Amino acid sequence: MPSTKSDTAKTLKDIVTNRAKEIVSDRYGEALKAAEQGIGKAVRAIYVALPNGNAEHLGSCVLVQVREHRLLVTAAHVVDEIKNGALYIPAAGSTKKLQGSGAITTPPSGLRRMDRFDFAVLKITTELAEQLGETRYIQQSEFVAPIPAVGRAYMALGYPNVRNKNIDHAKRTIKQSKLSVGSTVIEDAPLARKLKVSGDDHYFIRYDKRTRDPVTRAITQAIEPTGMSGGGLFDLGFFNLASLTKPPQPAGLAGILIEYHPDKNRRMVAVKIEALIDTINNLILAP
Prior knowledge:
The protein is an alpha+beta fold. The chain has one domain: Thrombin, subunit H. The protein has five helices and 18 strands. The protein has helices at 5-37, 76-79, 126-132, 189-195, 277-285; strands at 43-49, 55-66, 69-75, 87-91, 94-97, 102-104, 119-123, 138-139, 153-158, 167-168, 173-174, 179-186, 202-206, 210-212, 219-221, 232-237, 252-261, 267-272. The strands form four sheets. Strands 1, 2, 3, 4, 5, 6, 7 and 8 form an eight-stranded mixed sheet that branches. Strands 9-12-13-18-17-16 form a six-stranded antiparallel barrel. Strands 10-11 form a two-stranded antiparallel sheet. The radius of gyration is 21 Å and the shape is globular. The mean pLDDT is 85.
């Protein structure tokens, strides 16, 4: 049967729509790459020095600056590991010891696994700041709290354990490797009830077993995000057909990653950055 004008029009519309979707996907991939290479430089790994002298990768952290104060933000359960040894952050080809004053959330009944805020903030000393050199700090003006968040594109960025086991204990050198995960914030009432939170202070991020690279579009097995706790969740804005007419928005820090639920729903949980603001202000005003 010969095609009709309506069939031809439909085919052309599909071609245009599919091409537009490809452009949106390309822009999303470019935005992920730009965010990782830009604001993502403020995300670092954290290691613990074990009693035998070896280092072990723990998790991730984010360097931020509020006014003239430089701070390190991470997950509280990462800082808890100081009971096993001093904590270090890689910098300038070696590792630098974390020390100084800070604030940490208090776990309910002393059980960190019940802590749904699970964050710690450390004042970076002048000595450590000098050792870190000209590094990237996220400014308070780069904190974002988009409303609504659902439907926007995000990047979870941190250092998973599986990618950060390459440690030369003799030479005391560490080869680090980040993982960026592009996803969207979703509503998850069952998870909120399970965690006994309202959902107002947290983001829930979908994390699939298999992932498509936004640049190459290759589908691969997803890397388990254990160790990304303390890393950053970055808002990238909307990526849809309407966004093609607008310039891309700068990435901003929306939250700190604190949990991962590897059940069939596979969710990452981040505490919103605005939930940390009072703690940060109280810490920098403390003598």
